[in-house]
Structure formats: C-alpha cells, structure tokens
Write a structure and sequence with these properties.
It contains 2 helices and no strands. It is mostly helical. The two termini are about 15 Å apart. The chain is flat. It has one domain. This is TrwH protein.
C-alpha cells in the first residue's frame, strides 16, 4: 500500500515539474489533484 502511494507521489511530482517547465504556471492544480487522490490521514 505504501509503495503505491509513494509511486503516485513521484509520478504527480514529476508531472508537476514537467508542466511547470513547459507552461511556466504554478503547480497548484497538481497539488489539488494529489490531495484528492491521497487520503488526508497520510499527510
């Protein structure tokens, strides 16, 4: 279970970095989507 969550975090972090470098926009949208995917108890 922890491995799946860790993988999701890495993938979302990488996609946030890619979209930041390509679009020059803040990654707030990516953080919101990550918060929706991962339960609040983990944070």
């Amino acid at each position: 279970m922890k491995q799946i969550i860790f993988t999701i975090l890495i993938v979302s972090f990488l996609s946030a970095c890619v979209s930041d470098t390509e679009l020059k926009q803040p990654s707030n949208w990516n953080r919101i989507s990550v918060n929706k995917i991962i339960p609040a108890e983990i944070h």
